[in-house]
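Re-run with default settings, no changes from the original entry. Doing this only to confirm the output is reproducible before filing.
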Amino acid sequence: MAFHEEIARIADNKLIINFLKSINDQLIAQRGKVIWKHHDPEKLFEQLDEHRIMLDLILNGEAEKASQRMYNHIKESIEILLIEEK
């Protein structure tokens, strides 16, 4: 959670900061489902790489690419949660 909050803070995106704080408990509970779905160590390393790539893009000033990566990352996480609900 800290990674996501720090990205929002760096972006000075108060809307996202407040949103993340308001759903923190729910995100922690849901993250367990996402992690369990990616219990395969290879999948977990892919997720870590995705975070690293997003951070590198941000640090290199490639906001548009970072934004697209973040969108895809969030979309994939939501899809995993929706599949888990079925």
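The two ends are 25 Å apart (CA to CA). The mean pLDDT is 79.
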